[in-house]
Amino acid sequence: MQNRHAPPTPDEPGEPTSPPGDATADRQPPALTRRTLLAGAVTAAGTAALGPWAHPMSPAPVPQGATAAPTAPVAPADPSRVPGLPSAALGTRSPFEAPALAPTGVTMGASYTPLQALQGTITPSDLHFQRHHNGIPVIDPARYELLVHGLVERPLVFTLDDLRRFPPATRIVCVECSGNGRAAYRAPKPDMTPQVVDGLTSTSEWTGVPVATVLREAGLRRGAAWVLAEGGDAAVMSRSIPLEKMQEDALLAYAQNGEPLRMANGYPVRLLLPGFEGNMNVKWLRRLEVNARPTMTRQETSRYTDPLPGGKSRLFSFVMDVKSLITAPAHPTRLSGAGWWPVTGLAWSGRGRITRVDVSTDGGRSWAAAELTAPVLPLAHTRFVHMWRWDGRAARLMSRAVDETGAAQPTLAQFRAARGPATDYHFNYVRAWDVAADGQVSFAVDE
């Protein structure tokens, strides 16, 4: 395989750009001429003419050796009077918008999607939640390989180019970490935002090759019933997956929202299992081993086994439960006054399509059906909205989703009775937000 070398890096600031020994490096600057003076005068005059209309996004000169202090973005009073910014290699967000994953610097743990900052249902790729088991691996796509072996007729190795030669499939589905909502259940606090409460879920448009396609290429042998999926990260994350699911709708995804996967999201190839808990959607996929039974890896025994009351445990709780979350109004919002306010949020289910979301503005005493914003897709986030006329008094906002199987979100009391205080995954009970008389919104913690 041909080696690909990284391009040379640019010279460091302040370093000479001439080759060593080049006589030009020691030359003095050229003498000023009438032509250069005129050109400088024209530039200065143009800048002076703009005066207060100089584009606010243009970097201000910084004295040598000084560090530019961060400043808040400023827009001109009339943008139609100012030449716009030039194009760049990549489009950027407005400096007035700064959504961010949090926390950062994580190698073992999670970074949460800012659900309260998003509109619609698609999560921008760079804001997709992240679950780290041992950091983000750096993988050269030219050297990437996927091994398919085990109970197959023909063990095969696929390169990234090999996978891209198969007819692609595209699916819009959400991925949710099975531990999403743990902090809000175990240690709820009024100052929790939607990002902290349930920010380990994201919806994207995924493109790749159906797993069924590569399994068909390899040929399944008698007795095949499970597939071990193994990642190429330093944790060697691996999970056993029923063969039926792999043949139904599993995807070897190499693109997300129209571009190659972001590194943290599994670049160059990840497994996508619509509706299944996030840890099974193995990132940086490097191996599929077809087996007769589950492998019982470390992750699916000690880590992703859910303790229940009575000394029991839930094993292989693959499918994510029906769920919803109000993302606005939510903490840290403060409503500016009585009147009409949209109560909006997201609902989703690993069992199919959302059929109804009810919203309560009186703590669950009464419910009203919210409007579902089209398109309502199965196994993906669905946006709901309910117009609420706030009278200026304290209120409690809640949402309750129902999916096409008839499953509905339980109350917190029902969930706690069934799962117990030590349960660790699939927190799908009804969440609530309190609105104080002064308009301050906080996460409800006293149910």
CATH homologous superfamily (4th level) name of the largest domain:
Oxidoreductase, molybdopterin-binding domain
Note the total helix count.
8
Q: What would you call the structural class?
A: alpha+beta
Kindly identify the CATH topology of the largest domain.
Sulfite Oxidase, Chain A, domain 2
Q: How are the strands of the biggest sheet laid out side by side?
A: 4-3-12-7-8
> If classified by CATH, what would the architecture of the largest domain be?
Alpha-Beta Complex
Cα separation of the termini: 61 Å
Which of globular, elongated, flat, extended, rod-shaped describes the shape? globular
- According to DSSP, the number of beta strands is 23
The parts where pLDDT drops under 50 for at least 5 residues are 1-66
Main pleated sheet? 5 strands, mixed
**What is the CATH class name of the largest domain?**
Alpha Beta
Mean pLDDT value:
87
Total domain modules:
2
Radius of gyration: 27 Å
Strand content: 25-35%
Helix content: 10-25%
